[in-house]
Amino acid sequence: MIDVESAKRAAAQAAVANHYPKDARWVGIGSGTTIIYVVEAIKALGIDTAATRYVPTGYQSRQLIIGSGLTAVEFDAIPPGVVLDVAFDGADEVDDDLNCIKGGGACLFQEKLVAMQAKEFICVADSRKLQHRLLTNWKCIPVEVAPIAAYRVLDKLKELGSIEPVIRTNLDEKEGPRKTDQDFFIIDAPFPVMLTQADLAAGKVSGQNGVWEVNELSKKIKEIAGVLDVGIFSGLTGPQATAAGGIGGQRPIAAYFGMPDGSVSVRMAAA
Ligand SMILES: O=C[C@H](O)[C@H](O)[C@H](O)COP(=O)(O)O
Question: Which Gene3D superfamilies does the protein's record reference (predicted)?
Answer without folding.
Answer: 3.30.70.260, 3.40.50.1360
